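Dear H.,

Thanks for agreeing to be a second pair of eyes. The structure we're designing against is below in token form, covering all 269 positions.
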């Protein structure tokens, strides 16, 4: 009897699973594997998210703009230069857009000729400024407008202001305001636009070292004259070959000054 019972038990325990039971067990295994994968992927996702968030937080914290420095500018304070740039402290040093800042500074602060903006760690903007200076004075609308050698208007002074600069006589400009480059309409029969002639003329005067010019007369851009020390008129005519003509003027003036420093007249160049 005991042997029969053992055979029956063994037979029950070792019986083959039905297809339904095998399917059920396989399904449980798949669910278990799926849960493990979900947990693993979720863990990886949260770890990566945490790392990225930490990196971003560190990036924005470490590279936050906290200071600025201005070099090469004596006309304006560092605060004036930074304010004119439109840049603000607190933003990200590398994400802050600066491409429009130089133009804003040059327009709002007329004596600034050029600006280069660099980023310096930690969180600092460095402004390297190149200034310009007044080269001539132009009377306009009961005021005295100062221009640099490139035609940029710098500031307006009262008409009665005393300035030790050559006075410019020229066609009426269509644009003349501090911070902007003076613009002129083209003149018929002229070799170039009055602004180009102006820049070429001042460049040539500087190149040859001609000093003590008190008047630059471009009223007729086809017949330009200069006045030396309010007593000698230099007739250039058509503004071409300017450096050669002005070198000749320098030599002639040296000779005339040796003869008499008070002599008046005209030199036809």
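And this is the sequence the design step returned. I haven't edited it by hand at all.
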């Amino acid at each position: 009897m005991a042997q029969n019972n053992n055979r029956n038990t063994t037979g029950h325990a070792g019986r083959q699973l039905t297809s339904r039971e095998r399917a059920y067990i396989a399904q449980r295994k798949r669910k278990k594997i799926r849960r493990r994968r979900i947990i693993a992927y979720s863990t990886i996702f949260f770890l990566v998210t945490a790392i990225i968030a930490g990196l971003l937080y560190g990036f924005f914290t470490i590279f936050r703009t906290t200071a600025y420095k201005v070099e090469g500018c004596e006309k304006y304070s560092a605060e004036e230069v930074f304010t004119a740039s439109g840049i603000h402290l607190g933003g990200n040093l590398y994400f802050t857009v600066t491409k429009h800042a130089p133009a804003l500074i040059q327009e709002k602060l007329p004596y600034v000729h050029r600006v280069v903006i660099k980023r310096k760690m930690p969180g600092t903007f460095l402004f390297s400024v190149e200034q310009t200076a007044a080269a001539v004075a132009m009377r306009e609308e009961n005021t005295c407008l100062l221009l640099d050698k490139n035609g940029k208007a710098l500031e307006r002074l009262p008409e009665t202001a005393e300035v030790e600069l050559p006075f410019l006589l020229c066609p009426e400009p269509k644009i003349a305001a501090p911070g902007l480059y003076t613009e002129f309409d083209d003149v018929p029969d002229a070799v170039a636009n009055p602004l180009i002639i102006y820049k070429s003329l001042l460049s040539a005067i500087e190149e040859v070292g001609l000093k003590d010019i008190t008047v630059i007369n471009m009223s007729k851009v086809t017949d330009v004259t200069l006045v030396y020390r309010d007593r000698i008129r230099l007739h250039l005519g058509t503004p071409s070959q300017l450096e050669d003509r002005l070198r000749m003027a320098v030599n002639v003036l040296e000779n005339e000054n040796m003869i008499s420093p008070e002599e008046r007249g005209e030199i036809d160049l």
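Two observations from my side: The first helix runs from residue 2 to 13. The CA atoms of residues 215 and 253 lie 16 Å apart.

Warmly,
E.
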